[in-house]
Amino acid sequence: MFDDLRTFLQMLEDRGELVRVKEPIHDGHEIFSILWRLTEISGPAVIFEDVAGYDIPVVSNIFGTLDRFALACGFPEGKNAKGYRDLFLECLDTKKWTDPKIVKDGPCKEIVIKGDDVDLNRLPILKWHPDDGGPYTTMPIVITEDDKFGVNASIYRMMTHDKNSTGMMCNIFQDQGIYLNRARTKGMDSIPCAVAIGTDPSLYVGAVTKIPLTANELAFSAALRGGRPVDVVKCETNDLYVPASAEIILEGEISTGEVKQEGPYGEWMGYFEEEMLLPVFTVKCITHRKDPLYLMTIEGPEMGDAEILRMIPQMTTFTQQAMSQITGCKDAWLPPAGRNYTAVISVKKRYPGWGKVAAYQAIALPFVASSANCVIVVDDDVDPSSLDEVVWSLSTRVDPDKDVIITQPMGGYVLNPAGSRRDREFSDTGATDIVMRSIMAIDATLQMEMEGRSRPSATVVGPKKEMFDKVLANWKKYGFE
Ligand SMILES: Cc1cc2nc3c(=O)[nH]c(=O)nc-3n(C[C@H](O)[C@H](O)[C@H](O)COP(=O)(O)O)c2cc1C
What we know:
Structural class: alpha+beta
Radius of gyration: 24 Å
Bound molecules: flavin mononucleotide
């Protein structure tokens, strides 16, 4: 459990998992390249203390290993992704959540800058890659409120347009896109918004978790803080509440009508995404600590900082959906290499055609319908988290002519490099684009009789259970250790 970002960094430093770079840093691309290499070697978190043109240090790679992710969540170290997914499932129990606690003041208010003095260029928000469309805030916890659904906290990328405005990549598949659409239909010009940069890392984990629309991610984060509530303080210029111990807060409003071109941006699927029109966030006030730290990340590598941050939370939400909505579902998994676009589920097949029923049910899961491109259904003797076992299943249990379902094209989450068409029909209302793509579902379960098979069902090789148990019971007697 951590009070703020700096207590987490201190703990990492004490463990030898934080490096302070004192060497002058010339630009964002230098930082991007260092972080890319740190990912390749599962390297430490880092503070760039001397970034040219700025007196605010840049912090990154805080979630760079599964163990650091675990520390941020208060979990024991040394487990694999599946182990953390199972621990995370327990935290989704709302009995473990606690509402944020309102406090009068907090370190995030040590400096208050309002009106014309607001200048985002004073923060080290850099163009992290030369091919990005502009400088990006990549680790914002974006807080908004809706009169029906309550407070929402999520992470959405923000490209700086000028000294007091940015883009906001909230789209119709995300809660804030829904809030914005509701405000628009009610005739509101904008919605209040606050952005926290650099908080206790458990708040980031909460913000990236897909919990129900009505739930507050800051309340969920308390489950990762041993039940301790998040202290929040009221904004200077609107009625939103922000984490009191944050390094930096941006207060302002998101327009329901004004959109601006933003991108391209190197995204988490490992590709640059093309430009798009996004709602504009106007910053009216910046508050920060006296000596703030600026937290950022880069996207792209399979096991990078940002990818590790989103992996377990999103895998857990998907597992919860699959277990509750697919009949006979035994387990579910999103292979990290598939960046959440490939979903694997295992089922206990009880009658012919069950694998296909499960495939259709999987296509209808909110997580799959909104973003995945590929679903694989395997039998319950296959571990969905083992790519080797899944490939074995695909190779030996699939007759493509009968076992592959391909849907009609449908609208999905915009960041989908595989989708062949991007639709802009929503752009004039300020919401983001959608991508048209189909979903392929593969029934990789063993075929039963009555599934069009004119020969006996394939039988898996292995000793009979009775004999194998007997052999194990006598193992030492044979002279083996
Ligand atoms: C570093 C990082 C950046 C992210 N950027 C975006 C983004 O720009 N747009 C988006 O829709 N989701 C983005 N996400 C994923 C969302 O934060 C995540 O899906 C979250 O659950 C959305 O919250 P919501 O369901 O409350 O909308 C990002 C995640 C991470 C870890």
